Amino acid sequence: MRRRFPEHAVVWLDGRAVPGEDARVPVFDRGFLYGDSIYEVTRTVGGAPLFLAEHLDRLERSARGIEMELPPPEPIRQAVAETLAALLPGSAERAYLRIVVTRGAGDLDLDPAAADEPRLLVVAKPLKPPDVRLYDQGVRLALVPWRRNAPGHVPATVKSGNYLSSVMAVTAAKRAGAYEALLCDLDGYIAEGASSNFFWVRGGQVQTPPVSIGILSGITREVVLRVAAAAGIPVGEGMLHPAELGTVEEAFLTSSVRGVVPVVQVDQVAIAGGRPGPLTRRIMTAYGERIGEAPPGVPWK
């Protein structure tokens, strides 16, 4: 079977940057064995990692949440810089960036004390431009049976490498022909996408589920809440049951790599007449202005 590696990817591992296909993690690394790892994903704009300070802050919070030792911020920043510098000339201008910290390697033992020391990985690769149609025409979501974390499990606020529920959610969504999966909490209220936060508009107000429902506090989610408020758009947190989707006027997703993506259908429920709504487009433009890059297919004001 042919092995598939991201084209022209570079990985910073064990103190140096190497081509992606040459990167090797020991079999006994706990990130591989148990998903005992944390990570952050962002992208570059003009060669600079987008909201890197915020992502490193959240990485630190995730580490505290699972009692993992974390390298100091400056070595991580240096590893990021070296990884981006090792990309093909010009690729760092628009690059995908993933920062991973595992608890390390050790004996086959669930006890974290069996680990030697944390392992830092940084993955960078040229960012494939998103399809303009996603932003111009919007996307369809599928509600899936998978649920967000129950009380007593690893908190959803920890961005860990244990991501199997999201993998299976995406599998179900793709099987249904949808762009992204939409998951609910244990009480049946809409929580978030498999790799995104979910927003909707009702009564002219933009709303998104509260973090307390069991979702990750997305960096882009927080930025969008701020830029929307600054643009004079009413924003807040709220709860939405799937049975109420017919009352939704607009909807969109947010994520670090994709930015703001309009949603025009959830299962069989059409939203905004099947086209991106006006508030969504205003927020796409405001977010683009915040990061210094116009959203695909959406002109500046």
Layout of helices and strands, plus pairs?
Layout: E1 10-13, E2 16-19, H1 30-34, E3 37-45, E4 48-49, H2 52-65, H3 73-85, E5 95-102, E6 119-126, H4 132-137, E7 139-147, H5 164-175, E8 180-184, E9 190-193, E10 197-202, E11 205-208, H6 219-230, E12 235-237, E13 250-255, E14 259-266, E15 269-270, H7 278-291
Parallel strand pairs: 7-8, 7-14, 11-12
Antiparallel strand pairs: 1-2, 1-6, 3-4, 3-5, 5-6, 8-9, 10-11, 10-13, 13-14, 14-15
Short structural summary:
This protein has 301 residues and is α+β, with helices and mostly antiparallel strands. The chain has helices at 30-34, 52-65, 73-85, 132-137, 164-175, 219-230, 278-291; strands at 10-13, 16-19, 37-45, 48-49, 95-102, 119-126, 139-147, 180-184, 190-193, 197-202, 205-208, 235-237, 250-255, 259-266, 269-270. Strands 7, 8, 9, 10, 11, 12, 13, 14 and 15 form a nine-stranded mixed β-sheet that branches. Strands 2-1-6-5-3-4 form a six-stranded antiparallel β-sheet.
